[in-house]
Specification:
Structural class: alpha+beta
Largest sheet: 8 strands, antiparallel, barrel
Oligomer: single chain
Distance between the termini: 70 Å
Radius of gyration: 28 Å
Number of helices: 4
Shape: globular
Number of strands: 10
Order of helices and strands: HEEHHHEEEEEEEE
Helix content: 10-25%
Length: 226
C-alpha cells in the first residue's frame, strides 16, 4: 500500500515566497575600456581610465558641430545695395546701427564645445589619486598605425584640476574647462597619452572625431601600462 503525504497549502506558499525573494546574481557588464597610466613628468600620479561604453554617432555629433567651420555669410542682393545707394548711401536703418544690423555674434568654438561637453552623457571616469573622478563625456576609437589603437576621450573638467603638481604649465588652452585626451595603445594596452593641456584641439574631418592638433609634436603626458 502506497501512502502519499500532502503538504498543507500555507507551507507551499511559504516555499514559493522564499524562492521568489532569493537574491539573483546578475553578472556585471564588461567595461568597454580599462587602462592604467602614470604621469610622464612631475609627480608619480597613478591614473585609471574606466569606460562603460563608447559614444554613439548621435552623441558625438553636437561636439563635432561645435568645431565645424561656420558657413560663409550670404552676400547682400545687388538690388538691395542699389536701393541703399539711391537713399543717400545710408543703408537704411542698419546704416545708423539700428535694427537693420546683424544679430549678436555667434559663440566662439571653445564656448560651443564647452556647452556640448557639459550636456553629453557620462560614459565613464578618469581617476587620479583623489576621491573625485573626471567624467568622460566623449569616447571614440579606431585602428591606428603600427597595429595600435587610437582613442580620443573628453573629460568635462580640466584634467589635473586637483593635482597641480603634475599639470603642465603654462597651458595652451588656459580657459578651457574640459580636456581632450588622445591615446595610442598596442594590443596589450601599452602606449602613450597626450592632452589638450599642452596642445590645441582640432577636428579630424577624415576620421570624424575630435582630436589634438599636431599630435606627433605634442609632449607625452601619460604613460599607459594597462
Amino acid at each position: 500500500m502506497t501512502v502519499s503525504r500532502a503538504f498543507p497549502f500555507p507551507f507551499l506558499t511559504l516555499i514559493l515566497i522564499l524562492i521568489l525573494t532569493l537574491p539573483i546574481s546578475v553578472p556585471a557588464a564588461e567595461p568597454a575600456l580599462t587602462l592604467h597610466a602614470n604621469a610622464a613628468a612631475g609627480a608619480d600620479v597613478p591614473i585609471t581610465i574606466e569606460l562603460v561604453r563608447w559614444s554613439t554617432d548621435a552623441e558625438r555629433a553636437p561636439l563635432l558641430a561645435a568645431l565645424a567651420p561656420a558657413p560663409a555669410p550670404a552676400a547682400a542682393p545687388a538690388a538691395d545695395a542699389a536701393g541703399a545707394a539711391g537713399r543717400g548711401g545710408r543703408a537704411g536703418r542698419g546704416g545708423r546701427g539700428g535694427r537693420g544690423g546683424g544679430g549678436a555674434a555667434p559663440a566662439n568654438p571653445l564656448a560651443r564645445l564647452t556647452t556640448a561637453v557639459k550636456t553629453a552623457p557620462t560614459l565613464g571616469f578618469i581617476w587620479g589619486n583623489g576621491v573625485t573622478g573626471y567624467s568622460i563625456k566623449y569616447a571614440w576609437h579606431a585602428p591606428a598605425d603600427a597595429g595600435r589603437e587610437r582613442i580620443v576621450l573628453v573629460t568635462e573638467r580640466r584634467l589635473g584640476a586637483h593635482a597641480p603638481d603634475w599639470t603642465p604649465s603654462p597651458a595652451v588652452m588656459p580657459d578651457a574647462e574640459f580636456t581632450v585626451v588622445e591615446l595610442r595603445v598596442d594590443a596589450k594596452g601599452v602606449g602613450e597619452g597626450k592632452a589638450s593641456l599642452t596642445t590645441n584641439v582640432g577636428l579630424d574631418a577624415k576620421a570624424q572625431t575630435l582630436a589634438l592638433d599636431g599630435y606627433d609634436a605634442a609632449p607625452v603626458l601619460l604613460k599607459v601600462t594597462r
